[in-house]
Amino acid sequence: MNKPFAIFRSFRAQIMAIFILLICFSAVVGNLLIYEYSLKANMDQAREKLVIIAQTVAMTIDPDTLSKIPLDKAGMESEAYRAIEAKLLRVRDVAPSLAYIYILKRTDKNNILQFMIDIHPGSYKANEAPAVPGEKYDAGNMPDLRRAFLVPSADRKITADKWGAFLSGYAPIYNTMGAPMAVLGIDMDAGDVYQIEAETRRRVLLVFLASIIISVLVGILVAGEVVSPIKRLVEGTRHISSGDLRYKVDARGSNEIVELGASFNRMGANLFKAREALLSYFYRAVQSLIRVLEARDPYTKGHSDRVADYAEKIAAEMGLAKEKMQLLHDASLLHDIGKLGIHDIVLSKKVGLTPEDWHTIRKHPEIGAEILKPISLDKELLAVVREHHERYDGTGYPDGLIGSRIDPLAAIVAVADSYDAMTSHRGYKKELTKLEAIEQLKANSGTQFDPKTVEAFVRVLERG
């Protein structure tokens, strides 16, 4: 071999070359598998739920009333405008994460739309006036908005402009003949997710560059000492790429290796925060959808929030860890998500439910778990949604679990859910007093409810 290439025969040079390749591979795999698959997959789930919200709200708009709005400044004072504005304001009030709600229609100019209604948040921009009916809007660079005249859609990525960072969903509004006459759009504030995504990209780039520089230095100076840290970094990459973003690399050795491991850990921490933010964004979207669903019936409005409050008090009394309490709070807010899959005709019945109706309603825990399964990374949250109607004696549904086989958090939600149902006025029954409800909890302890959970909640109620 020629002398200029003799250096590559040395063990030190070979180790250095392998080290560089492994770090580059780790960075590329980390970027593709973690960022592309984890973050973008969760973003797709958020977009799908945003489209569902837009469709749900669009179906509440009366096309005849909408067509009566004059397309000029005076249109804001019309009776038709006020009627639809009041309906959209109620939606915004029960779903505060929705920043803007608006309705646009086509004009005779290509890509130019005009506002019919523009609803702004109460305090989002104090000096910002909503668009008046007839005001033009250039949608030339918004293909998803234009496509919404044909099918519901959502922006493929977060849009950042002078008003902030938003993810938008759109749905067509049809006239009485079944033809699209306008598009309803909703903008959800996604500033926190946008910032974390930008920070994550910067971290990935810095880690990649730092890995190359540090690997060359370490390979030259202490090639023999880097084999063990390499193995730990590779192991860390496997954990991160499999979804374990909390994994920490223990990079013992020289200062350069320690810094490389620290950078790797910071990247993992930022990716974890980004994934948590996207999940939180999705949960907020689903919670907004639940609040829209609950707002249709005054007897169930606020039910999920009250159940979450009761469940947290029970968990605190039982001494659960802070992380479990947060998971319990999120699961409680989502426990009835499966009712989105039950027809309104069945849900709106107050009395006279047939056996077929009961069979349909009792499927909502399974439906809820299936809705959340593609995006929820926490199996216990899915267990709470699926098992919150299981009974301690094994006669509950959907799986007939008994005693300790029921998830402990699901047992807490079951007690909180029943207590709120007993103490809330419904159209077909009178609510119980607190004392009457306590007696019911005690009477069903050991049959319907977990005894320890009932004891903890009774202590909370008697103190309060």
What order do the SSEs take from the amino end to the carboxyl end, as H and E? HHHEEEHEEEEHHHHHHHHHHHH
Supply the number of helical segments: 16
- The CATH first-level class of the largest domain comes to Alpha Beta
The poorly predicted ranges are: 5-11
Percent in strands: 5-15%
Helix content: 55-70%
Number of strands: 7
Radius of gyration from the alpha-carbon trace, in angstroms: 28 Å
- Report the CATH topology name of the largest domain: Beta-Lactamase
Which homologous superfamily in CATH is the superfamily of the largest domain? PAS domain
**Count of discrete domains:** 2
Describe the sheet with the most strands: 7 strands, antiparallel
CATH architecture tag of the largest domain: 2-Layer Sandwich
SSE layout and pairings?
Elements: H1 11-58, H2 63-67, H3 79-94, E1 98-106, E2 112-119, E3 136-138, H4 143-147, E4 153-154, E5 159-161, E6 164-174, E7 180-189, H5 191-221, H6 227-241, H7 255-295, H8 303-317, H9 322-334, H10 344-347, H11 355-361, H12 364-372, H13 379-387, H14 408-423, H15 434-443, H16 451-463
Antiparallel strand pairs: 1-2, 1-7, 2-3, 4-6, 5-6, 6-7
Helix pairs in contact: 1-5, 1-6, 1-7, 5-7, 6-7, 8-9, 8-14, 8-16, 9-13, 12-13, 13-14, 14-15, 15-16
Entry summary:
Strands 1, 2, 3, 4, 5, 6 and 7 form a seven-stranded antiparallel β-sheet that branches. The protein contains 16 helices and seven strands.
Overview of the structural elements:
This protein is an alpha+beta fold and 464 residues long. The chain has two domains: 9-278, 2-Layer Sandwich (Beta-Lactamase); 297-463, Hypothetical protein af1432, CATH 1.10.3210.10. The protein contains 16 helices and seven strands. It has helices at 11-58, 63-67, 79-94, 143-147, 191-221, 227-241, 255-295, 303-317, 322-334, 344-347, 355-361, 364-372, 379-387, 408-423, 434-443, 451-463, and strands spanning 98-106, 112-119, 136-138, 153-154, 159-161, 164-174, 180-189. Strands 1, 2, 3, 4, 5, 6 and 7 form a seven-stranded antiparallel β-sheet that branches. Strand 5 and strand 6 form a beta hairpin. Helix 6 runs parallel beside helix 7 (255-295), helix 8 packs antiparallel against helix 9 and helix 9 (322-334) crosses helix 13. The longest helix is centred in the first third of the chain and has 48 residues, at 11-58.
